[in-house]
Amino acid sequence: DADVTQTPRNRITKTGKRIMLECSQTKGHDRMYWYRQDPGLGLRLIYYSFDVKDINKGEISDGYSVSRQAQAKFSLSLESAIPNQTALYFCATSDPTDAGSEQFFGPGTRLTVL
Amino acid sequence: DQQVKQNSPSLSVQEGRISILNCDYTNSMFDYFLWYKKYPAEGPTFLISISSIKDKNEDGRFTVFLNKSAKHLSLHIVPSQPGDSAVYFCAASSLNRDDKIIFGKGTRLHILP
Q1: Is the minimum CB–CB distance between B7 and chain A shorter than 8 Å?
Q2: CB spacing of A103 vs B101 below 8 angstroms
Q3: Would you place residue A100 in the very low, low, confident or very high pLDDT band (cuts 50, 70, 90)?
């Protein structure tokens, strides 16, 4: 079984719709992250959380919000989706006791905003 | 301002030869450097890392070299195999910067038969 799961894996939505992407992990890690990947731009951090109720903005948080209600779950919301939010979204976790801060990624959610 | 740079978007290497992927960084405060590998339709997976106090780390066919004075690191894969065809992300982290990892844009490696 995968340690980090994301739902849905694919989603097509229309401009202006609200959409939520879910991330669950069984690794027992406190730290969770949301990234987006665009062609030629690599992975960019949207939001991250170091504990339940702890929320921090990443480099591209505008237009997004997150919720961390439990250690194992971290959800990403697009309140009013726009076409330039079409991207591949990844959730990741890490253990602060691990030197080097290796992150473990989910399989990704491909989001298309029409 | 891009702190981690991978200037080669793609690289093609003959099977059996050495693949060398390069990465440059600008922030001398980074404590760790990591390489991630990504296949299509999958999330990135950790490959190998190196502490800033070392200049080399080896794991099987993969070796990472760090040149702090040049702010440059490289990943060597030898011998290259077909399954190595993927996108490789260089990343850096600083323990004093909230454990965030800064990723480069990635290099797509093609292993040619």
Answers
A1: no
A2: yes
A3: low
